[in-house]
Design goal:
The structure holds two protein chains of two kinds. Chain A is an alpha+beta fold. In chain A, 46% of the residues lie in helices and 19% in strands. In chain B, 52% of the residues lie in helices and 4% in strands. Chain B has a two-stranded antiparallel sheet with strand order 1-2. The chains are: A alpha+beta, B mainly alpha. At the A-B interface, helix 1, strand 1, strand 2 and helix 3 of A face helix 2, helix 3 and helix 4 of B.
Chain lengths: 147, 135
């Protein structure tokens, strides 16, 4: 484990947060996408984060007591799931997409939740940028050793 | 007498190395600030540095004395025990124990301590250079 691994870790964090921001953007953009059937309606998308664990082989060949215990190396997005929260059914008989009973399906996107998620994602992204910047400073400093 | 780097540089070489490792551990905590179930980790710097120094045959740390041949050496089992789990001050519902501001503060503190270790190491190198030049 060295300073370069910090770049990988912070980079994985930034990638994960930008994907989260992407799903939030998609959810907000589609918040009012109406549909006439439950199968076609847009459902809120959420990323699933998980820590990246160093595999056993890498630990074994890594050598040294410290390399075996680095814990995990960054974060990964396991996948994007669709929320199973109940859909928003509105009675709008005049709507062109209304079904035979006069209902229109709206996505289960909670705008307030999405906005909070957006702020959280952008703050976390910022944190990772700060970490990478600090690692850069440390590395640049190290290059001046002995000068 | 020849110049021995390990004698000349002293503790600062290991200290700098540990600071880098701690920075990576803290960076990992920050990257996983939104990962459900992730447990924040940290290095006990003092213990880790003590272990590293002991393993390199430098001055021994305050280990438990083995007065009998059957005594188990300290810190031998379950792998190196320098990487510990943080006790959360505000644990969240999803099992994540990362407190971003606390981790950020530790990270900044660590990078300042890295700078000081670096200064010391650089000073050592400067001393060696001046000894070689003789000026």
């Amino acid at each position: 484990m060295s300073l370069t691994s910090i770049f990988d870790i912070a980079g994985s964090g930034m990638a994960a947060q930008s994907l989260r921001l992407n799903t939030t953007a998609s959810n907000i953009a589609n918040a009012d996408s109406a549909s006439s059937s439950t199968d076609e309606v847009y459902r809120a998308r959420k990323p699933v984060f998980s820590a990246v664990h160093q595999d056993a082989l890498q630990q074994a060949i890594g050598g040294g007591p410290m390399s075996a215990q680095s814990g995990s190396l960054g974060v990964q997005v396991k996948g994007v799931i669709e929320s199973d929260a109940p859909l928003d059914m509105r009675f709008q008989p005049d709507h062109p997409l209304a079904d035979e009973r006069g209902y229109v399906m709206y996505p289960n996107v909670n705008i307030v939740e999405e906005m909070a998620d957006m702020m959280s994602a952008s703050r976390s992204f910022q944190t990772n940028v700060d970490v990478m910047d600090a690692a850069k400073t440390m590395m640049q400093r190290l290059l001046t050793l002995g000068q | 007498m020849s110049i021995s780097f390990s004698n000349a540089l002293g503790i600062h070489e290991q200290a700098l190395e540990l600071r880098v490792k701690r920075a990576a551990v803290l960076a990992n905590n920050l990257a996983n600030a939104d990962t459900p179930g992730f447990k924040a980790r940290d290095i006990d710097f003092k213990a880790a540095l003590g272990n590293q120094m002991a393993s390199q045959g430098m001055e021994k740390t305050l280990d438990m004395a083995a007065t009998n041949g059957k005594h188990l050496p300290h810190g031998q089992f379950g792998g190196p025990d320098d990487l510990l789990y943080r006790t959360p001050s505000q644990p969240s519902m999803d099992g994540n124990t990362v407190d971003t501001q606390e981790e950020m503060a530790e990270f900044m503190k660590n990078s300042m301590q890295y700078q000081s270790s670096f200064q010391f190491l650089n000073g050592k190198f400067k001393s060696i250079t001046s000894a070689i030049r003789g000026d």
